[in-house]
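Hi again,

Forgot to attach this to my earlier email, sorry! This is the prediction with magnesium ion bound. I've pasted everything inline since the attachment limit keeps bouncing my files.
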Amino acid sequence: MITDFRRIIIAAITTVIFLVILRLFLKRKIRTTKIKQWWRLFSDRFHDHQFLKVPEVNDNSQENQLFRRVSLYLNSLESLEHSDYTNLFSGPNPTDILLSLNPNQTLVDEFLGARLLWTYDVISSDTTVTKSFLLKIRKRDKRRVLRPYLQHIHTVSDDIDHRVRDIRLYTNSSTGWKTVPFSHPATFDTVAMDSDLKVKVKSDLETFLKSKQYYHRLGRVWRRSYLLYGPSGTGKSSFVAAMAKCLSYDVYDLDISKVSGDSDLKFLLLQTSPRSLILVEDFDKYVAAKNNSAPSSSAAVTISGVMNFMDGVVNSCCEERVMVFTMTAKEDIDPAILRPGRVDVHIYFPLCDFNNFKNLASNYLGVREHKLFSQVEDMFNSGVTMSPAEIGELMMVNRTSPSRAIKSVINALQTTSLTVSGLLDSCKGTPKNGWRSARDSVDESYDSVAGIGCRDGVKEIRKLYGFLTRKSGRKSDSFDLGT
Ligand SMILES: Nc1ncnc2c1ncn2[C@@H]1O[C@H](COP(=O)(O)OP(=O)(O)OP(=O)(O)O)[C@@H](O)[C@H]1O
Ligand SMILES: [Mg+2]
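Structure tokens for the complex follow:
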């Protein structure tokens, strides 16, 4: 018993002695590091240095890509973890913690035996904030190290870019672009649409990404533009998010109504960075002037300004860009605006058909087959339809019971059919029974009915249900390369 007690006492004393020695050793190590630092500072005084500045923007206010690369590189350095002061940010995933340099902080890097000191300079005035990185390198080392060091920064930042690139969303305001992390959850898998079309668009984007040399061999600027058109709630905006994720490109969401004039528009374009998707939503608001004397929008830009903006992407300064325009219908748009070269690919987004409905049911309700599907299919085949947004909403609120959800879709389709055929009949004055005949007569009614009320009624139906001049099931030319 006593021997056991003695053993415990000896073990406890040994542990305490070990901890004290460890502590002293660590303290000494820290002290040695400090002494080394001071020695380096002292010895630096006897060497000539060169200072190299990497500003955030160039003279044309365009983003300096080297600044972004240096920032990615420095924030990934292990020495940042051990520095006295570091900013911590949450990453795209909740568990990610990202480190970032603090303004005016200095970080030491070593490369091929040379010491490189980086300082993050931030100068703020009332209206502007100027950021830059300042590299301090011994003149003796510069010739030997600088070129391979910059190459090393390129390689490392490229690697980080591909691994952890968090896409950013830029929106324009009166002072330029403002940015936030892009967190739209849509992907190609979550957007319900014709699967062949999805594959075509994906492969078109992937081919674009790999085609820099090809474009240059042809003497063309490496860019591509898309028009997404179709009724409201058919997934155009969600598809843009999926495109940006597939490309891993930042999104510049341009609101033309906030642009103060044509030159401002050009300036905003010049401020976008490579590897970005420039999005103009509701583009018809600014260019649908075929039937009116001027675009309906009150924006300060002119049509020629908008066309220059579209062509501006052709400038070599705006390479590696994808432009996307969305609108409900392109019939009223002057074909010159949408000609190949300005818009390369036209993609039509139809209202829901049975296949899309099944996609939605699988995504929203987790069901691939159901006894009510045949009834839904009959309804779609009879020509009645709704937007995926409407159907998705019904499925979402009833997601705890797939049967209830599908029944609510059937009810909504029936109501839609009755409402629209009733409206059309009252316009034409001819009783009609089925939705199919009502739908088929939409264009005819629009052209022949002179009364404003009826015309408005049909317009309203067109707006509500998206039956402009297309039918929902149309697929053959929904992916229309080069118009
Ligand atoms: N094809 C689809 N597949 C899956 N969800 C869809 C689809 N279309 C629409 N939705 C859902 O409906 C909502 C609206 O979609 P979205 O904003 O992408 O439509 P939109 O075509 O851009 O409409 P608008 O022309 O009014 O801007 C989103 O929440 C989206 O998830
Ligand atoms: Mg939209």
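The pocket of adenosine-5'-triphosphate (ligand 1) is lined by residues 191-193, 232-238, 349, 388-389, 392 (CB under 6 Å). Residues 290-295, 427-477 have pLDDT under 50 and may be disordered.

That should be everything now.

G.
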